[in-house]
Amino acid sequence: MAKMYYEKDCDINKLNGKKIGIIGYGSQGHAHALNLKESGCDVCVGLRPGSRNWANVEKAGLKVMSVPDAAKWADIIMILVNDEAQAAMYKTDIAPYLEEGNALMFAHGFNIHFKQIVPPANVDVLMIAPKGPGHTVRSTYVNGKGVPCLLAVEQNATGKAYDIGLAYAAGIGGARGGVMETTFQDETETDLFGEQAVLCGGVVELMKLGFETLVEAGYAPENAYFECIHEMKLIIDLINKGGVAMMNYSISDTAEYGEYVSGPRILPYEETKKNMKAVLKDIQDGVFAGKWISENQVGRTFFNAKRAQLAKHQMEVVGAELRKNMLWGDDTDPDTASN
Question: CB 311: neighbour CB atoms within 10 A?
C-alpha cells in the first residue's frame, strides 16, 4: 500500500515566513493561489506581460507580478502553466533568479521526468499534484473538503522538502482528502497513460463511436447523446463513490448482464491490452513526449486540425444545443481561463 498522509501529518506552519509564487492563473493556478491565501499563506501570482488574467488576479485580492519578479520574490515557486510552455519560461524567467534553498514545485512531472527542466542541485524539487481539475480543487476547499493529492520529491536539497510539500498540500486543502506519496516518474507515466488510454483518449473514442453507431442506425442524435455521452457522468460518479460494485448495484440487472456479455465484444481483451501496452511503452520510452514537444515546435498543425475536427463533430454540435435547452441541476462550466 502506498504511503498516505492526512491533515494530522501535515503542519501548515512550515509555510510560515515563506513567500509562495504561483506561476500561472489558469484552472489549477487560480485554485492554488486562492486556497493558499485563505489558508493564511503569503502568496503572489506570476503572469506574463499583458496577460488577460492580470486584472482577475487583482480583483481576487491577490498580489500579482511578472514571472521574473515573482521568481525573485518567492521562496517557493509552483509552476502551473501548461506543460509545453514550462521549459522556455523556466529558462528565461525563473532559473536566473533561483536561490539556494528555494523550493521549485510542479503539479505534474512531465518536464522534470523528461528533462526539459533541469534545476540546480541546491534547490528542492517536488510535486503536489491534485487528482482533480482546478475548479474542483477550489470548490471542494470552499466547501470544507479537499481533492486528494500526490506528493513526490525529486530533489531534497534542504532536507525539508517533504515538510514543505505536505504543508502546501494542507494549504490547498488536499490533506483533507489524503496525500499519497509517489515519484515523478510514476506520476508522469501513469498520468499520461490514464489520459491517453482511458480517461480522455479511450473514453472520447468510445463515446464518439457509440454515438455514430446509433445515429447511423437511424436513431435521433439527441437520444444517442443522452445514452452514450450525458449518462457517462452519472455512471462515473457511482464508480468514483463506491467502485464498479456500486455502479452495478445501482443499475438494472439487465444493464449489468449487458456489461458482462457485450463489454468484451467492444473491447476485446487481448487486442485492447496489446494496444494499451504499446501506448504505455511509447510513454515510458519518451516517444510520446518527443512527439508532443515537436508538435509544439512546428506550430501544432496536427493538434489544431484534430481540435477543429472534433468541434464540428455531430456529437459536439448536438450536445451543445441540448445543454442550452435542458436543465442539468446546478452544474456550471469549469474555469477555463488561460494561464
Answer: 10
**pLDDT digits 0-9 by tens, 149-204:** 999 999 999 999 999 999 999 999 999 999 999 999 999 999 999 999 999 999 99
Question: Quick check: helix, strand or coil at residue 19?
Answer: strand
> Of the residues 30, 32, 108, 113, which is catalytic?
108
- Tell me how many degrees the CA angle 296-301-307 measures, rounded to the nearest 5: 100
Instruction: Record the pTM.
Output: 0.89
pLDDT (0 to 100) of residue 327: 66
Count other Cβ atoms within 10 Å, centred on residue 61.
9
Q: Which residues of 37-58 are buried (b: 16+ CB within 10 A; e: fewer)?
A: bebebbbbbbbbeebebbebbe
Average pLDDT over residues 249-266: 96
C-alpha distances (whole Å) from 325 to each of 138, 322, 336 are 28, 5, 22
Q: Cell for 144?
A: 470544507
Establish whether 108 is a catalytic residue.
yes
